[in-house]
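Before relying on records like the one below, remember that each one covers exactly one chain. Contacts with other chains, cofactors or solvent are not represented anywhere in the record.
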Amino acid sequence: MRHGATFGVALAGVFLACSSPNNPMVSALDASAGTGSSSSSGGSGGSGGSGGSGGPIGSYGFSCSAPQLAGVDTQGAPPQRLSETGLYADLASQTFASYVRAFEPTYKLWSDGADKHRWVYLPDCTIDTQNMDHWSVPVGTKLWKEFTVGGVRIETRMIERFGPKAEDFIFAAYQWRADGSDADYVPDGVRNANGTAHDIPALSDCQSCHGYLPEHALGFSAIQLTHNLSGVTLETLADEGRLSVAPQPGGYRVPGDQGTSSALGYLHANCGHCHNDSGIVFNRPYRLRLLVGQTTPEETDAYTTAVGVPVEKFVHPGITMRIAPGDLSASCVSYRMGTRGTTEQMPPFATELVDDSGKALVDSWIASLPP
């Protein structure tokens, strides 16, 4: 979805992170901050959206310590250029920083057909995974996502956790220059950027997608990283000792046959960030986000809160249920996924084109449900 707002106070070009002798991005930390030892069994867990004190990284022997908050920019301004965010060692030659790692989620967010590439910088300390459904990444974590349409590179978005509080995240979008020499921070967004139909989001759009879940960073999670694709995965993070609580063997696959799991995964990635326990309020629960403890299709919230449940806020002739088993014509989800250009479309913004492939997945699943 459209990202880009600032939560809390931003950094002034400083990474607040865990101590690490091998990370050139990390500033030195106060020795009195309480660094753990490599013999400890892990750090404190934290609560809510806030991370804990961290713990050692397996055999690497690194440990977290409380970051100093010196150098905080009280105006809340992220870096003005992408080259200043730490993604590249040398932008001119397109050389990525050595500490940046590529990743991709199993289930993708539809962005009108844009090609996307993702990277993450993780400080050398554990991710708090006491709640496997809501990871709390360490202070200093950064994630980037690049958008390309028709071979034209348009923007790169960044998310950074800069402090220990739940709201200590900054979001920014950077528009690529025509000559590719850099990308500039565009807080007001850009319509039809770089001669394409792609819109770069304004900062005010950020909370609409990222504000409901405590982790804020979407797509970097236990379910989304359970795969054998390239880059960072749940397995690689577990093998490196980067998770404070180890995942179950094999990770967290979406339940059901291929058609069912694909449809549920699509709803999770494209709808679940708003339709969840802490999301948009309805009189009856309406949750499309998957949880790791839901091991059969019938246990998922998409089944229990949407299948056979009457529509509540949406009024349209013939649409009677959120998901009408075996009946696409009466299913709100199918209708709104196939609508664009009106207030009836879903998602409500950040897309101008119907995702025909994604809709076909969901429609096939709905049609297969016994009435």
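The helical segments are 206-210, 234-239, 258-270, 301-306, 332-337, 356-368.
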